[in-house]
Write a structure and sequence with these properties.
alpha+beta, 4 helices, 11 strands, about 170 residues, Immunoglobulin-like
Amino acid sequence: MYRKILIVGLCALFASLALAQDASQNADAIKQFTRSGKIDGITLYFVHINNRTVDALFEAPTKYSMRARANMSTLLYVQGMPDSDANLTTEFVLEQDGQATSGTVHNIKNFKAGAVPKGERIDGIIQFETKLDLAHPFKIKHGDESVEFKLSREALKMLEPPQPPQ
């Protein structure tokens, strides 16, 4: 009886350690692929959605469709909260290597053109039909404002497929 309790307890401990490690890896992935900028007077956080960040941002079954979309195009998760009443416009352009592509905005919460009251959370997705070369810097432009992504070697390494054991 005590042996069974000990085994169940150890299993629970190992499971919680694995979840803690996953949470730490998810937090590191979010940090590596997030940039922020002032857009229409609101600090917005842009997270590049990829195979590493999708698990931290979405739950099943949404994460599976988001992963598929991110593998075919470029997706950015956008989040922010205005410090004062603001008027948001949603015309974003992706620039990389001299090429520009307009984005399509998908509203989750308050990520649409118009007034956003102070303290209201903004959540949404910007989709660009262009698939990026993440080894090259890129910018998200909004009028005269822009947010630059230049990924570190560590971030690029996170995107490499796992090596088979030797």
